[in-house]
Amino acid sequence: MLKRTIFLILILLTGISSGLCKAQNKISTEGLLQRDRNGNSRMGQLHIYQDARIDTLISRHVLSNMKQDGLDGFRIQIYNSSDRNAKVESGKREAEFIARFPGIKSYATFERPGYYKIRAGDYRTKTEGTKDLLMIRRVWPDAYLVPDKINFPDLD
Is the Cβ–Cβ distance between 107 and 94 less than 8 Å? Predict the structure, then answer.
């Protein structure tokens, strides 16, 4: 009985102390849109004070990502064959693809034991690739999305 009472007292004390120790203070946003004594608005001003070690961590993260071969994403596979004339046929298929879809980059690859593949596009998600896949399927009905390492997107 004594152990149970002590246990209940400890639970109550931790509940009370956790209410007293808050991680963050509540900040009022009233003064954000007010004007100062001279009538100047403080809107549009942003001051960031941060530790210099944060910049170091960000640059390390960027450098580690640059060392990778690419980003996990999806491409549209339009050709895959291991026939005797697969090398010639894949070249023809890629040339036809470039002529029909000049805005989509194509990639010809060879994988052992003898598969020639033509894949197109650099899509981060399946949703991004679905629009182009529907256009490409009008010409090549067997085209489909495959997971692949893609090039990093341009920062426009």
Answer: no
